[in-house]
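seq as requested:
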Amino acid sequence: MMKDFKESTFSTDKSTGDLRVLCVLLGGNKQGQAFAESCLRWTPQVAVGEEAIFLEIGKCSHIYSEETIVKGVLALARRFEMKVSIALDQDIPTSLAKARYHNQIKEKSNLPIEILNDYLSPFVRTHQLDKMIISLKLLGINQLGQFMEVRPNELASRFGKDGLFVSMRVRDARHIPWPRFKPEEFIVEEQQIESTQPLTNLEPLTFVLRGLIDKSMARLRGRSERATVVELILEQEPYSTVKQAKRRWLFELALPQGSTRGLLDIIKDRLARELQVTPLEAPLTGVTFKVLSTAPGAASQKDFFCKKEEQKEIMAALVSRLTERLGPHQAFVAESVENYRPERSWLRKFAEEDSEASEVVWPTPERPLRLYKEPKELSQFGDILVAQGKRWKVVKMLGPEHISGDWWNNQYERDYFRVATDTGEELWVYKEDKDLYLHGIFD
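struct tokens:
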């Protein structure tokens, strides 16, 4: 069962050293590898066993408190739809043994003798000591504390090397070597669809996709990565009328994605267009989501007082959606550069260049988002402005803002005005010599 964390549940006594092992007992769930990857956000020392994963959190106590990590692990388990039991202690087998009993047994000495197999082999389930455990119980030894009172030489004479070895492990298991943990090369999340709940359109498919993408994003965050290329595979019932049982979509993302919502919107946009043209031919039997390529993406804690990271994530998703819809090189980010001349005060930065926009260190007046490539000549008749057959009546005029060109490159002098008109549009107009030009429109 999943146990809610309480402050009194875990001891924080570190008198025997800095090793603090958090055991997450998976309860038969097969997502241990994926869950362990997600837990890399808290600690780089992770081990995966047949029944549980283990996190060494003692060395990260200056960054996270034990309470914070425990609550985070429980929240992550809910995202993975897993029922877990967790326990924290100073070695691997003791934390595993306590997790088996849902952390109800606080003292190591009170643990039942049946958990000796966990001390012999904490990563691979074994029944090697079952006969020994039966013999110990016949001798009246039912708890670990009673077992530790037996002298090692007596255990060796009665039970051989296994008895001596497990006796040493029970007394001090802090030096058990951790097996190497290697994340999967590709992140793959899949879900089989029951025939009783057939998926035939985009709306119910979205709910399945959200869960798969959310798990993938959690794994990417643990690995400090973001997705750059993903693949979606939809498997249909292999009816005789179905021409293509498996349908695949490859998404080469304009900007690396690390949020579930942003990536889901990109995928939904394309599916909505393509399924409208070529609908599904049969109910779905399975959905597979793969992350084929990634880019480094350092994880950071959410700052409640600054939305910069959140806004950056939203912008990355927006640029990727526009690129997906409009095509490559059609969506770009305008980067400010140090130049007074409006035409040269920004540069196009395409998504694949992945560069941060440089910040101008001095305040500059607001510029229009719609800037004409070539200024349009304006005719003035009193308070009426005319350009290419369109007329505006001047309501208010702000300015001038004097802008001059580089003295070594086509020197010019311009006075810019921000003009409010009767149509609600605000024009960016400049005067050069005696002529008026329309250079842009504010949005």
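The longest strand covers residues 390-404.
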